[in-house]
Design a protein that fits this description.
With 315 residues, this protein is of the alpha+beta class. The chain contains nine helices and 15 strands. The strands form two sheets. Strands 5, 6, 7, 8, 9, 10, 11, 12, 13, 14 and 15 form an eleven-stranded antiparallel beta sheet that branches. The protein has a four-stranded parallel beta sheet with strand order 2-1-3-4, sandwiched between helices. It holds the Pfam family YegS_C.
Length: 315
């Protein structure tokens, strides 16, 4: 995609995100753009809502030719929501803890990958999920992982890292009671009973787990994976099968695709998370917004591997 120099490129940056590797990426990419004669503007976010507001203004600003989202999945989500429905393209500088969407799109820890994405002709339409009107670009989780997210956010002070998840995961594993949920896809009920649910737009979740193996962020479909689970032993079994990429064929796993997903359950015991942030209370209705925004991606992009994820975790 040819980005015109008759205007400017807007960087929307979450100042609380950013590790050494992401800062190096940003400076290398910025220097490249300046050497090529592009005009750059930088806006720092004050909150997730502010990121969305900045993107919404950029969406209708003729002179803004490209929006670069520098932050984690939460920041990227809000910027996508602000750009939704416009013809304004975007890029991602992965600067968060997991960077799920950037990983899925093939970005790594190198500044030259950003440059290749900018110079190349590869762009992808990105679908958007809306859960009770609240957006997500990656994964909505219900049950166990959402409880972990709740516990992490209760203690959160600024930027978080992978170690911040250790005790919440450990405590949730032993305390979780596996409450009932109901799940319907495009009007058909596919589950009622104890279970852990993931609804998403990307194939790989935290630390590269391929929970939603068939997901494609631009195929116009939501992928749904339900782990039928009522004990810690069964949860461990699901974990092993997921690590070995055999879970979607297991008899106690339900896997579907659709455009509307409805989830019911007791909101006092079943939590929801959207892209790693606390989500709405149950009941939740998720619908797909196809081709919400266009994203520049590296040529021949493939989801980032375990090595890249480890570099980001340690960076």
């Amino acid at each position: 995609m040819n980005i015109s120099k008759e205007g400017y490129i807007l960087f929307i940056i979450n100042p609380s995100s950013g590790k050494s590797s992401s800062k190096l990426m940003f400076h290398e990419f910025r220097s490249y753009l300046e050497e090529k004669g592009y005009s750059i503007k930088i806006a720092f976010t004050e909150s997730l809502e502010h990121a969305q507001e900045l993107a919404r203004k950029a969406a209708v600003e003729y002179d803004c030719k490209l929006v670069v989202a520098a932050g984690g999945d939460g920041t990227v989500r809000e910027i996508v929501q602000g750009l939704e429905g416009s013809d304004k393209p975007m890029m991602i500088v992965p600067a968060g803890t997991e960077n799920l969407l950037a990983n899925e799109m093939g970005y790594d820890e190198k500044g030259k990958t950003l440059i290749k994405a900018f110079e190349g002709d590869a762009s992808r339409d990105l679908d958007l999920g809306k859960a009770n009107g609240r957006c997500f670009t990656c994964v909505a989780g219900f049950g166990f992982d959402a409880n972990v997210i709740d516990m992490v956010n209760e203690r959160r002070e600024g930027h978080i890292n992978h170690l911040d998840y250790f005790w919440p995961i450990w405590r949730t594993f032993w305390a979780y009671k596996f409450p009932d949920i109901t799940v319907s896809v495009d009007g058909e009920q596919i589950h009622s009973g104890p279970g852990i649910l993931f609804v998403g737009n990307i194939s790989r979740y935290a630390v590269g787990l391929e929970i939603l193996q068939n997901a494609d962020f631009g195929d116009g479909l939501l992928d749904v994976c339900i782990y039928k689970c009522e004990s810690q032993i069964q949860l461990l079994k699901h974990s092993v099968f997921t690590l070995s990429k055999r879970h979607i064929n297991a008899s106690d796993v339900v896997y579907r695709q659709g455009k509307i997903v409805e989830i019911g359950g007791d909101p006092q015991v079943v939590s929801c998370q959207l892209d790693g942030d606390p989500g709405p209370d149950l009941p939740v209705k998720i619908r797909l917004i196809p081709q919400a925004v266009k994203v520049l991606v590296p040529p021949d992009a493939k989801p980032a591997g375990i090595r890249t994820r480890l570099v980001r975790a340690l960076g």
